[in-house]
Amino acid sequence: MTRPPPSHHLFFGLDLPDPVMSDITAAASRVHSYPSVVSIFCKLDTPSLSQSLSAAAPVGVTPMVTLEPWLTGMKRYPGPQPDFTLASLISGRHDAALRAIANQIKLYGRTVYLRFAHEMNGSWYPWAESVNGNGPGQYRTAWRHVHDLFAPITGSQVRWVWSPNAINSLPADAPSLGELFPGDSYVDFLGFTAYEHHSGKPAETLGKTISRLSRLSAKPILLAETGVTGPGKQAWLRNIGDYLESQRRVVGFVYFDTSPGGGATGDYNIDDSSDAAALAASLRVIKAPLYP
Question: pTM here?
C-alpha cells in the first residue's frame, strides 16, 4: 500500500503490547492515521527483539526500542537489586547481553530509536540514581558506557533518546535533569514520559518539562511515552495536536494505546469511537500520514 510522506514537523507513534503487523494496521484504522514510529520494549534477556523489529519493516514504521537494563518479568523496583545497579552497568557486567542486543539491531539494518534506561529521575526502576545504592553522576557514566559499547556496532543506525519522566509528577528532591543528562554528543533526542489522569489540557501535562528540556539542550524534543485517562480524556486527545504544533522544539509523540492488562498504569486505550475521533482530529492537525 502507498502512504503519503510523514509530516516534516511532527510524527505520530504508537505503543501496542507485543505488536505485529495486523495490530499496527488495526490501530491505524481506528484513528485514520498511520504511525511513523512503533514502540518496542526490550530487556537484557529478551529473546525476540529481532522478531519485533522485523514486524515493523513490512509496514514502513521506525521502531523505538526502550531498552531496560534488567530481566524479563521485572516491572517495578521492589527493593535493593544489586545485580542491576548503575555500578553494574559501568563495570561492564552486562556488556555481553548489551552487545547481543546491539548486534540484533545491526542485523535489522534500518534506523532504530533507542531509549535506554528511561525515567531515571523517578524512583521505580533500579537504574534510577535515587535508589538501589546508586549515586550522583553514575547514570551519566552508565549511559556513556552503553553508548560507547553500541557505537562501533550500530553506528549512525541508532538514534539515542534520553528520556526522563515529566518533572511535574515528581517530588522536589528528585535528581535534576542537568545532573542526569549525558551530554549533547551522546544524545540525539530529548525524550520524556508524561501521562495525564485528570486534566484535559496538554499544557498542564507537558509544559513544565518541555520548558526545562528546552533550557537543557538544543536537541529536538520527543514525547516518547504518553497516554491519557479520566474525565478529560477526549478533550486532551482533541487538543494534543494543536498544543504540540505550538511547541516548535517538539518533533513527535508516541501514544501508548494500552491498558493495565498490557502493562500500563491506566486505561489509555483508544477503543472508544469518541476517543478515536478526538485523536484523529489531532493527527489531522499535525498532518500524520492517513490510513488508506
Answer: 0.94
